[in-house]
Write a sequence for this structure.
C-alpha cells in the first residue's frame, strides 16, 4: 500500500531494542518536525485554504504525538535528549532540484512529506509486530494508522496541486531514490536513518 521499494530490514528492531531511549528521543523530534512542516506549509501557501485547514489539524495532531512520546520518555525515568541530525531527511531533500515555481516547490514539499510519513508508517508497523516491549508495540500500532492517513493526505494534495501524471512520475522516481538511501541507512536506532 505504501509503495516503498525497499522494506526495512527486520533486524533494525534488534538495534532499536538495544537503545529504547535513543529511538524515543529521535521519534519525539520527528513528531515535532512533522508539526513544523505543517506550519511551514501554512506560512508558505496561505492561499490554499484546504491545505491550511488540514495542516492546522495536522500540526495539532503531531504535537499531540510529540507529547505522547515525551510522556513515554518521562515514564521510563528519562529526559528528552538533544535533537539529532536526521541523515535520512537530509539525503532525501537532495533529490529534487532547487528553484522552480511556487507550485513546483509545493508539490516537492508534499511528496517529501508523503514519503517520510510512508516510511514512518512502515517502521511503526514493524515495531508494533516485532518489538518485545508490549507497551511500545501497542503504542506504535496505534500511531501506524495516523501515519498512513498522513501519507495519503500529502500524496492527494500533491496530485491536486500539480499535474497528476507528472506528480505520479516524480513520486515513482522519489521512491526509487529513497530505496537507494535505505540500502545505506537503517542501521541505527533512529526512526528513519
Amino acid at each position: 500500500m505504501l509503495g516503498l521499494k525497499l522494506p526495512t530490514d527486520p533486524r533494525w528492531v534488534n538495534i532499536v531494542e538495544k537503545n529504547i531511549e535513543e529511538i524515543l528521543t529521535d521519534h519525539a523530534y520527528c513528531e515535532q518536525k512533522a508539526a513544523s512542516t505543517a506550519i511551514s506549509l501554512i506560512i508558505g501557501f496561505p492561499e490554499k485554504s484546504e491545505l491550511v485547514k488540514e495542516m492546522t489539524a495536522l500540526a495539532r495532531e503531531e504535537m499531540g504525538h510529540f507529547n505522547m512520546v515525551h510522556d513515554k520518555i518521562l515514564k521510563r525515568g528519562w529526559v528528552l535528549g538533544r535533537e539529532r541530525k536526521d541523515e535520512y531527511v537530509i539525503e532525501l531533500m537532495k533529490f529534487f532540484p532547487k528553484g522552480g515555481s511556487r507550485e513546483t516547490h509545493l508539490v516537492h514539499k508534499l511528496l517529501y512529506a508523503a514519503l517520510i510519513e510512508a516510511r514512518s508508517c512502515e517502521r511503526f508497523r514493524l515495531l508494533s509486530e516485532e518489538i518485545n516491549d508490549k507497551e511500545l508495540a501497542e503504542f506504535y500500532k496505534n500511531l501506524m494508522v495516523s501515519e498512513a492517513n498522513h501519507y495519503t493526505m500529502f500524496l492527494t494534495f500533491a496530485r491536486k496541486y500539480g499535474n497528476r501524471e507528472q506528480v505520479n512520475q516524480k513520486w515513482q522516481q522519489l521512491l526509487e531514490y529513497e530505496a537507494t538511501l535505505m540500502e545505506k541507512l537503517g542501521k541505527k536506532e533512529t526512526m528513519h536513518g
